[in-house]
């Protein structure tokens, strides 16, 4: 069982992802935008972050950038994004060691990635730590 | 903006509901709680306990807990458990209902806020209980429906995702076997099976695994003996419908994969013990996934077949042209092959390599319009005869031009005798003005001419031909293309010596027989 935060602005997709992951036995937290998600993980670290890219306020890239180096996400990050998103975004995410899954997401594939992240070593180790001043509570 | 949810989301909803039903006022409290089923056992029946606690910390707590324990132990008897026995004016009632398919007990506890004898009426209590039970049941139904919708959507997502993956795959892969592999590995994963096997019409079985197999692992498909396999496959082949059967003590799902020419293959999967039975959802999933997968495979097969046919027709055509001049027998075929090899070496995208191969194959089509006595003349041509020969690129272009789809290929045909220094024909183009395809065809054409025996000379060796071409680099030969060609040729010769020898029977006599006699 992992503690998973899902950041997604579309409430229906958010519900669906969260329902699916709960059914797989995980404890799921929901956030409707990047800022809410950041506050949530800073207050209490999670194992896995599942994030959308396009969200109002703070988008997925900014969210990942701000939390991943802080150690608030212990096991890894999964990004669910539009299949036709720009290659540069994908490259950037790949550099961060983030797993990218296309939308509409495949529930079985999502579970596979969650399981392997939960079993594997933390992916945050691959990240360069951010400047000290930006470090959060984690 | 954020809410915590957990495995108890549904229970949270119930808690809100029973909270809403609970009332407090007129010096009395009425609380409603849900206890009983395994799924909801973890929920603290807070309202009941709260009611007890608020009423009389000592006796009521004890009574309340006793009551709830009774409810958990044997729901049916609870109604009598407390009625009339609760001290200090507490009353309780319970009713068994079900939530999302599992049994649950709705309980109500009524009691005074302060001490003293209770003034509650049993009718109120039971009425309240009825309302609560009905609402809980309704909520249970809604949760069930909700879960059903979610399942449906999740399954659609799964299928949609597979369709996207396959279409994306097909954009890069035109190989039917590769598409089949992608499709069936995915099917195995969707069905939570270790492997699936495809039983071909003649009974042979191709196995695909859900997870990549380690090298050297003993591959294991569905564990079925051949007779059982044939039996399961036969039914599906006849009916063309998915079927779940128990074969040899194991659950097997079998579904049709219809290929080109209405050929039915059967996809079989089993599940190892402990992974549960195949559901109606699994049956629907495999049937629809294989239906569109089969469509994609059929289309790709059809495309491959048409392409092969077109190539064969073209080869027959150019072979007929080559026959006119025995010295150039096989020249066009080799031209196509070498053009592709060189295009590959130059990093040309695969689709364009294909087009260029066609150009290589068709470049001399115009020779059909050159009189045989000139084409096969032993010895040097007169200037007039030479002018006639120089017409063949334009003639080829004119023959092929009506075929609109040939496009770039026409460039290769029309310009394959243009030289970088501008001294070529028919238009005297220079350097980069000459399309890449034409520059490639020119190099391989020159090479093949040099390494073939002509009416007026014997064939040069490959090494000598390369020397001759190198000497003309920059003037009549494009340097970059020629060097790429040499690299590709050398590698091919090293890696495929037998094939190379068959294609290039270099140095052997090619007699000019009847046609040129």
Provide structural commentary:
The complex is a heterodimer of chains A (about 140) and B (about 525). Chain A is α/β, with parallel strands linked by helices and about 140 residues long. Chain A has one domain (about 5-120): 3-Layer(aba) Sandwich (Rossmann fold). Chain A has helices at about 10-25, 35-45, 60-70, 85-95, 105-120; strands at about 5, 25-30, 45-50, 75-80, 100-105. Chain A has a five-stranded parallel β-sheet, sandwiched between helices. In chain A, helix 2 runs parallel beside helix 3. Chain A starts with a strand and ends in a 19-residue tail after the last helix. Chain B is an alpha+beta fold and about 525 residues long. Chain B has three domains: about 10-140; about 175-215 and about 220-300, Beta-Lactamase (2-Layer Sandwich); about 325-515, Orthogonal Bundle (Hypothetical protein af1432), CATH 1.10.3210. Chain B contains 18 helices and ten strands. Chain B has helices at about 10-20, 45-55, 60-75, 80, 120-170, 175-190, 225-240, 280-325, 330-345, 350-360, 370-375, 385-390, 390-400, 410-415, 435-450, 460-470, 480-495, 495-505, and strands at about 1-5, 25, 30-35, 90-100, 100-110, 195-200, 205-210, 245, 250-260, 265-270. Chain B has a five-stranded antiparallel β-sheet. In chain B, a hairpin with a 2-residue loop joins strand 4 (about 90-100) and strand 5 (about 100-110). The longest helix of chain B has about 50 residues, at about 120-170. Chain B starts with a strand and ends in a 14-residue tail after the last helix. Classes of the chains: A alpha/beta (about 140), B alpha+beta (about 525). Strand 2 of chain A pairs antiparallel with strand 1 (about 1-5) of chain B, so a sheet runs across the interface.
